[in-house]
């Protein structure tokens, strides 16, 4: 059986917090917009875990930011 390796994205939380500030949203407003709890957004911002698939896409749409930026594949927010 293959063992799953955990993906680490050291700056994800920092980049997410920056994108939230630039969008003039609160963590609660983002949570409401994408359909999750504020606690979940806080955990993403503190790098406890990362959003998956459709939730990542929803974050990008809500904040008008690229997934590449959040995933540290680009330094360009858009």
Task: Note down, in words, how this protein is organized.
This protein has helices at 12-22, 27-34, 38-45, 53-63, 67-70. The protein has 5 helices and no strands.
N-to-C order of helices and strands: HHHHH
Q: Please state roughly what percent of the residues sit in beta strands, choosing from under 5%, 5-15%, 15-25%, 25-35%, 35-45% or over 45%.
A: under 5%
What is the overall shape?
globular
* CA-based gyration radius: 12 Å
Number of helices: 5
In terms of per-residue confidence, which ranges show pLDDT below 50 for 5 or more consecutive residues? Answer: none
Tell me roughly what share of residues is in helical segments: 40-55%
Number of strands: 0
Itemize the secondary structure elements and their pairings.
Layout lengths: L11 H11 L4 H8 L3 H8 L7 H11 L3 H4 L8
Task: Summarize, please.
The chain has 78 residues and is mostly helical.
Entry keywords:
single chain, 78 residues, mainly alpha, 5 helices, globular
């Amino acid at each position: 059986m293959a063992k799953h390796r955990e993906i680490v994205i050291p700056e994800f939380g920092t980049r997410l917090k920056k994108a939230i500030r630039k969008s003039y949203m609160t963590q609660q407003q983002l949570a409401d917009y994408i359909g999750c709890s504020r606690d979940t957004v806080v955990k993403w911002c503190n790098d406890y875990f990362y959003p998956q698939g459709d939730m990542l896409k929803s974050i990008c749409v809500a904040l008008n930011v690229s997934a590449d930026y959040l995933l540290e594949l680009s330094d360009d927010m858009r």
